[in-house]
Design a protein that fits this description.
With about 450 residues, this protein is mostly helical. About 65% of the residues lie in helices and about 0% in strands. The protein has 17 helices and two strands. A hairpin with a 2-residue loop joins strand 1 (about 340-345) and strand 2.
């Protein structure tokens, strides 16, 4: 008996930490789905149980926000509490696991690489795992509490909610926002508040804070400026976030400003606020203050790009991540300029990092394309709608043109797979590629195939 236990323990210890990540999230999904299947989780008259519970659990743990049933009416307060707990577990798990895997990858590097990494990063240490977890928890709870207080006050003062109802709405949307989940207790999501800055702006701020990533937040809280030691990762994330937010907001306003279906009926201030939300929410919050089913094709295309890129690493946002996108962009730029080395901010980016970024991006494209094809096969919707839904699921965004409610079971399974791959896959793939990287002590003869 003791020998059997010892063998089981050895096998468990032989499991790579990268493999434990999807197993942990899968366990959370199954527990959440089981709780949502309980009669006290759903309102009377709800006949179909298994698929809504499973889809909602996947969406909540993967902090996506896609739904097949109305969160406000289908689930009871207990069910909504379960969803909120799954969102918190999923968001906290992503931030901590991604951060710890990054530390693990750093420690697996050689001595020279470790010294370079240590000189560039002054925030984290693998030996201080407990400290890392506590710092993540403190930052998360502080941001959620500040957002909840602002939202509660607004719901209570301006919308005639009782204090208890206002507090519940404030807490739920604060946690959903910081974790980039996009779940809402209103049937029309945030459309009723499209021109209310006291609702939209705090939620946008929480979305950006949660999606920028824990290492970046730590660096910013320490008050360092660019000239006082920002790492390449922080520079890429901060500047990339600002650029994408500006481009997303500007293009959204350009395409939707005068359209009667979306921003046209609003005041100038309301249009500007809706444009800001249109630039923030695809990165990857999933809230919507307009109906994307009425958006222009140009808006949907730009939104697809923003959703696919996503937010910062080791944060609650999804997508291939800003750093992945910008590393590839700098690699192309340096190649065009005829430079052998890829340099960012007076630092060179190694070839393994470039290959990892390329692998993550291409695998993401492959997942989206396969998912889109399957949605086209299983449904009667067009390419524009199927692609938008697939990118939203992979990027763990949660935006929809309105077709999610009508999807058959096999199409729902496709979206669940995309959400899981998009949430867990990019982290595990990037970490696995870094962990298995080994120096090669020989070189094979080179040959150059024709490119282009």
């Amino acid at each position: 008996m003791a020998a059997i236990k010892l063998r089981k323990r050895i096998k468990l210890e032989e499991i790579s930490p990268v493999r434990l990540v999807p197993l942990a999230f899968l366990a959370a999904i199954l527990v959440g789905a089981g709780l949502l299947m309980l009669p006290l989780s759903r309102t009377p008259g709800s006949h179909e149980v298994v698929m809504p519970a499973l889809f909602t659990a996947v969406s909540a743990v993967c902090v996506t926000g896609l739904i097949t049933v109305d969160t406000a009416t289908f689930w009871t307060p207990f069910g909504q509490t379960v969803i909120l707990a799954l969102i918190q577990v999923g968001g906290f798990g992503i931030m901590t696991l991604a951060t710890l895997l990054a530390l693990l990858v750093r420690k697996s590097l050689g001595l020279r690489s470790q010294l370079i990494a240590q000189s560039e990063s002054h925030t984290l240490n693998l030996g201080d795992v407990r400290g890392v977890l506590l710092r993540v928890a403190r930052i998360m709870l502080a941001c959620e509490a500040a957002t909840a207080i602002l939202l509660t006050a607004r719901f209570w003062i301006a919308y005639d909610d009782g204090l208890a109802t206002a507090a519940w709405h404030g807490i739920f949307h604060a946690i959903s926002a910081f974790n980039n989940a996009g779940f809402s207790l209103f049937s029309d999501n945030l459309i009723p508040f499209v021109d209310d800055p006291w609702i939209i702006l705090p939620i946008c701020a929480a979305v950006i804070a949660g999606g920028i990533g824990f290492p970046v937040i730590i660096e910013l809280l320490r008050g360092r400026t660019v000239h006082k030691g920002w790492t390449v990762h922080v520079r890429l994330t901060v500047y990339g976030t600002l650029i994408l937010l500006a481009l997303g907001t500007g293009l959204f306003a350009w395409f939707e400003w005068d359209r009667a279906e979306t921003l046209g009926p609003l005041s100038t201030g309301g249009r500007l606020l809706a444009a800001i939300a249109g630039g923030v929410f695809p990165r990857t919050a999933g809230f919507n203050s307009i109906n994307y089913g009425d958006a222009a094709p140009e808006t949907l295309l730009i939104t697809n790009i923003l959703m696919f890129i996503g937010g910062g690493s080791a944060g609650t946002a999804g997508g291939i991540k800003i750093t992945t996108f910008l590393v590839l962009a700098f690699a192309i730029w340096n190649e065009v300029r005829g430079r052998e080395q890829v340099t960012i901010g007076h630092r060179s980016v190694s070839s393994p990092v470039q290959r990892q970024a390329l692998s993550v991006a291409l695998l993401g494209i492959a997942a989206v394309m396969i998912g889109t094809v399957l949605l086209l096969v299983f449904t009667d919707y067009g390419l524009e709608q199927a692609l938008f839904e697939a990118v939203s699921a992979f990027g763990t965004v949660g935006l929809s043109t309105g077709i999610t409610y009508e999807l058959p079971a096999n199409a729902e399974l496709v979206l669940m797979a995309l959400m899981f791959i998009g949430r867990i896959g990019t982290i595990t793939v990037a970490s696995a590629l870094a962990l298995i990287s080994r120096p090669i002590l020989y070189r094979l003869p080179e040959e150059r195939p024709i490119i282009g």
